[in-house]
TrEMBL record:
It comes from Candidatus Viridilinea mediisalina. Pfam families: GerE, Response_reg. The modification 4-aspartylphosphate is found at residue 63. Gene3D superfamilies: 3.40.50.2300. GO terms for biological process: phosphorelay signal transduction system; regulation of DNA-templated transcription. Keywords: DNA-binding, Phosphoprotein, Transcription, Transcription regulation. Residues 8-128 form the Response regulatory domain. InterPro entries: CheY-like_superfamily, NreC/VraR/RcsB-like_REC, Sig_transdc_resp-reg_C-effctor, Sig_transdc_resp-reg_receiver, Tscrpt_reg_LuxR_C, WalR-like. This is DNA-binding response regulator. SUPFAM superfamilies: C-terminal effector domain of the bipartite response regulators, CheY-like.
Amino acid sequence: MSSNASIRLLIVDDHPLFRQGVRWALAGEEDVTIVGEAASGEMAMEWLESAGSTYEPNVMLVDLNLPGMNGLELTRQVRRQYPAIGVVMLSMHESDEQAFNALRAGAAAYRSKDVKPQALMEILWRVARGEYVINDVVLEEPRVASRVLSQFRMLPEATPTNPDATDVPIFTPLSDREIEVLERIASGGSNKEIADSLKISTQTVKNHISSILRKLSLNDRTQAVLFALRRGWIETPSEIRQQSSEEQEE
């Protein structure tokens, strides 16, 4: 697979044989550099602190079940201190609980360790480009998709104190009503149609849309729908009609 970017990978796993296996699997891949290894979360953070900008990875491959600081806590710390690094989390077995926890921690991808080398490369390239691929697992297992969606709907609202801040959480939860509005936008509803179906005013719909865009730091409703779809927050028909005329409404 080709890409305009390059992968600078840090492998974090307590099994030397697994780390060597990753090196072997990625050997010869174009524009992929394994910049380092760490056997624990603590060692990974020390490595990042001493690496400097020259060797800083843009992708980390992290074992969920690390000794001491586990993969989830490591991911949280990396996302706080090194937001440009995408974390690919691996576990022995895929499960809805682990997928949800990885997503909550800020991981950009979640897979089991039996992932094939070609599939792993696809994931690494996508994460290096700033994409999120947890939902590929979610969409393969409807139970997981349903649970992730319901769990996010139960989360409290988290509006950034500074809408222009660069450290806005990747997975910002929306309220139940905002999710409903997004679902209807994705299905092609106009502001008036959404208002009628939810029995609220058109102005209230506009207020919800403004709130959604502010929380997600996005510019228009189409971007918000795509953002929510990629993260499994909403379910829509296979075809989504463009709402260009609605985007121009004040």
